[in-house]
């Protein structure tokens, strides 16, 4: 049996190692399209801060790790898939056949269609190559504009500030991380970041980018404001790498559609990680949950099913739970599940901005289905546990509506019978 794993990020690496344990004799090919060994993109902010070197981003520290596991590494980018013949065509013109295929191709940064966005001083932050370019352009005293205050934008802010740049963040939404945080939580993060010396402009887009008269770039906003800068970093989101699936029988929406075994619409082909669109834990609707723990869980399930050939008792995902944990220059925030609430549900919200604390709980009946927190780092895993376990809270729901910070008590009490 020959398995090809497209993508050597966290999902691909976990899948390859899981496959090797489950299928000791099978052929495994791990494909990556970058020059570097498999690495974690989430480590790039630490690289930019100077806390680690490039080798510190590598997912496995031994250079012969995959060779010792008899996993063949291949550098290349898939450009076409033939599901009838079970072959993949790569950008160098060569083809590989497979018996089982895992699509773990991840995502790529989105460059909005803004005039001037292709200028050399405009940079994304997604790869090690990007990190090298940012390190060269983000020098002490330099002026940096960052387009986007979503997850990626927020995790690199601290690294940029520590490099000594003058940072301005531009966000189209009315708050920071609008797709992960409630209005109150996103507003708290904005005000906190501004206190750390970052200028934040919300409800503004970039109209165009031009060569500045007294600077390399001038960024012109929809508000009419003009920002001179030495470097513009585009952190406007990512999109799954699915171009090579065009014209195939593999069903694609925002990402590659999979069932709870991580199998696609084509038998023998699976998907995991940022590229996979899997059923949600509560609603059952498909969603892309681009977080590393989720990628690892999906990769294990996919690999076990690839090894077993979908026999009875296949490994299954219980459902994707949206999880976001973010460190915005020292302010820790998180959101879980249906953090915006559900139709017919109810919730509670409490804010204590003076002490940097905030919590929002959302319920469906007596089940906690979503939560948002800021500054509540202790026992925050209990929120995830209550939501993921679909725990019936009983009398504890009313207690949480009264005092939502008692969620850890609720978690402990609801693990015991008759509580």
Mean pLDDT: 93
Helical proportion? 10-25%
Q: pLDDT under 50 segments (min length 5)? A: none
The radius of gyration is 23 Å
The main β sheet shows up as: 5 strands, parallel
Overall shape: it is globular
End-to-end gap = 51 Å
- CATH overall fold name of the largest domain: FAD/NAD(P)-binding domain
SS-based class: alpha/beta
> Which quaternary structure do these chains form?
single chain
Task: Find the CATH superfamily of the largest domain.
Answer: FAD/NAD(P)-binding domain
Please give the order of strands in the largest beta sheet. 3-2-1-7-19
Write up this protein.
There is one protein chain. The protein has 419 residues and is α/β, with parallel strands linked by helices. The protein has 3 domains: 2-42 and 50-108 and 238-308, FAD/NAD(P)-binding domain, CATH 3.50.50; 122-234, 3-Layer(bba) Sandwich (FAD/NAD(P)-binding domain); 330-414, 2-Layer Sandwich (Enolase-like, domain 1), CATH 3.30.390. Helix content is 23%, strand content 29%. The chain has a 5-stranded parallel β-sheet. The chain has a 5-stranded parallel β-sheet with strand order 9-16-10-11-12, covered by helices on one side. Strands 22-23-26-25-24 form a 5-stranded antiparallel β-sheet, sandwiched between helices. α1 (10-22) runs parallel beside α7 (292-308) and α8 (381-388) packs across α10 (407-414). The longest helix has 17 residues, at 292-308. The mean pLDDT is 93.
Features:
single chain; FAD/NAD(P)-binding domain; 5-stranded parallel β-sheet
Question: Which helices and strands appear, and what pairs or packs with what?
Answer:
Layout: E1 2-6, H1 10-22, E2 27-32, H2 44-49, H3 65-68, E3 71-75, E4 78-82, E5 87-90, E6 95-97, E7 100-103, E8 107-109, E9 122-124, H4 128-137, E10 143-147, H5 151-162, E11 166-171, H6 183-195, E12 199-202, E13 206-210, E14 217-221, E15 226-229, E16 231-234, E17 238-240, E18 256-257, E19 269-271, E20 276-279, E21 286-287, H7 292-308, E22 323-328, E23 331-337, E24 346-352, E25 357-364, E26 367-374, H8 381-388, H9 396-402, H10 407-414
Parallel strand pairs: 1-2, 1-7, 2-3, 7-19, 9-16, 10-11, 10-16, 11-12, 18-20
Antiparallel strand pairs: 4-5, 5-6, 8-17, 13-14, 14-15, 20-21, 22-23, 23-26, 24-25, 25-26
Helix pairs in contact: 1-7, 8-10
């Amino acid at each position: 049996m020959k398995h090809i794993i497209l993508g050597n990020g966290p999902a691909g690496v976990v899948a390859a190692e899981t496959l090797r344990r489950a299928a000791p004799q099978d052929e495994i090919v791990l494909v990556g399209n970058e020059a570097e060994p498999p690495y974690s993109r989430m480590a790039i902010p630490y690289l930019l801060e100077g806390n680690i070197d490039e080798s510190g981003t590598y997912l496995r520290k031994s250079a012969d790790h995959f060779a010792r596991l008899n996993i063949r590494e291949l550098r290349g980018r898939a450009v076409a898939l033939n599901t009838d013949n079970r072959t993949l065509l790569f950008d160098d013109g060569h083809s590989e056949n497979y018996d089982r295929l895992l699509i773990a191709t991840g995502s790529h940064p989105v460059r909005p269609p803004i005039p001037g966005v292709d200028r050399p001083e405009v940079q994304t932050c997604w790869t090690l190559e990007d990190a090298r370019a940012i390190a060269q352009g983000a020098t002490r005293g330099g002026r940096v504009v960052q387009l986007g205050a979503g997850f990626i934008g927020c995790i690199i802010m601290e690294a940029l500030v520590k490099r000594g740049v003058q940072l301005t963040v531009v966000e189209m939404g009315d708050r920071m991380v609008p797709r992960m945080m409630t209005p109150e939580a996103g507003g708290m993060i904005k005000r906190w970041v501004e206190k750390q010396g970052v200028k934040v402009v919300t409800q503004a887009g970039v109209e165009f980018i031009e060569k500045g008269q007294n600077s390399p770039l001038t960024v012109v906003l929809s508000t009419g404001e003009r920002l001179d800068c030495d470097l513009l970093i585009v952190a406007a989101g990512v999109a799954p790498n699915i171009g090579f699936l065009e014209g195939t029988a593999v069903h694609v929406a925002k990402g590659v559609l999979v069932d709870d075994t991580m199998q696609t619409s084509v038998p023998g082909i699976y998907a995991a990680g940022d590229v996979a669109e899997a059923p949600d834990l509560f609603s059952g609707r498909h969603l892309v949950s681009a977080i590393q723990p989720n990628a690892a869980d999906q990769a294990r399930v996919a690999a076990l099913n690839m090894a077993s050939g979908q026999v009875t008792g296949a490994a299954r995902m219980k459902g994707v739970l949206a999880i976001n944990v973010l460190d915005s220059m020292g302010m820790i925030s998180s959101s879980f599940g249906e953090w915006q609430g559900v139709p017919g549900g109810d919730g509670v919200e409490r804010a204590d901005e003076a002490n940097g604390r905030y919590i929002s709980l959302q319920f469906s009946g007596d089940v906690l289905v979503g939560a948002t927190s800021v500054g509540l780092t202790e026992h925050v895993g209990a929120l995830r546990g209550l939501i993921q376990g679909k725990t019936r809270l009983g009398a504890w729901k009313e207690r949480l509506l009264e005092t939502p910070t008692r969620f850890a008590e609720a978690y402990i009490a609801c693990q015991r019978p008759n509580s």
